[in-house]
Write the structure tokens for this entry.
Amino acid sequence: MLAFILRRLLQAMVVMVTVAFIAFTLFQYVGDPVTNLLGQDATPQQREDLRRDLGLDQPFFVQFAKFIGNAAQGEFGLSLRQGRKVSTLIAERFPATLELATVAAMLGLFLGIPLGVFAALKRGSFLSQVVMTGSLLGVSLPNFLIGILLILVFAVTFKWLPSFGRGEVVAFGNLSTGLLTVDGLKHLLLPAFTLSLFPMTLVLRLVRAEMLEVLRTDYIKFARARGLPDRSVYFRHALKNTLVPVITIAGLQLGAIIAFAIVTETVFQWPGMGLLFIQAVQFADIPVMAAYLCLIALIFVTINLVVDLLYFAVDPRLRIERSAAGH
């Protein structure tokens, strides 16, 4: 297990350096931050002085080497738009994105798994067909359209929920959260449900397909022949053996929720990292954009490692196979 973790950590370092290099290369062509800072009326001397102050007159690999060196120390340089440390900006915005992504992931799992089990066990019933039709809509409709429709219905028409912002937040250690205030919860409902709809429907359809496959296996027939109650057959035997692919999808979707919260945060003006990234793209703020993508890559790599370790806890066959391979 230790060798496996060390090997994955080495792979993660290679992935992180590759992502940083690609990001830093691509973002050299998204615009000129000097023009955005000084405007079109700046003199050539002013532009040259600012470019030298920002370090943009240095060769690409020198800039990239400085970025990697700073990133290894948890620093990503200064934002070209705000003149503040990128690490400080991310630390301010990350709690909002983490809160939104966590609630969206919990909604996706806690609603997707039971609905998937229901759709499998009640296959062919009217309610099961309604659930599957709703899942098709959740997979097909883009997030921005779902968000706009929810705002139209719940914020504009009925005026039940706010349409933008994070609402009232309170300090919780080094983080800020709106989960402990009524106003914060109201502001969280619409963006969290919007962001959770796609992973929810994905988990739902996966659980249904896996449950139907497992229920046809011989050991389930044997469990029924032994006279075990349906509840034990469905939830102790069948559902447990559907969790391995569900863990994989759920882990990847958690990373995707954080990475692709950009659209939802923009629609609802949620003050998270996604909105910070969009503003950085508009201003060609290269340090912020590169730091954001590196952070997302780190999140994906970490989640993949955790998912691989969870396999051993959920499926004993993997532990037996790994032990046999070692001998």
Summary: Residues 39 and 47 are 10 Å apart (CA to CA). The chain has 15 helices and two strands. The beta strands are 170-172, 175-177.
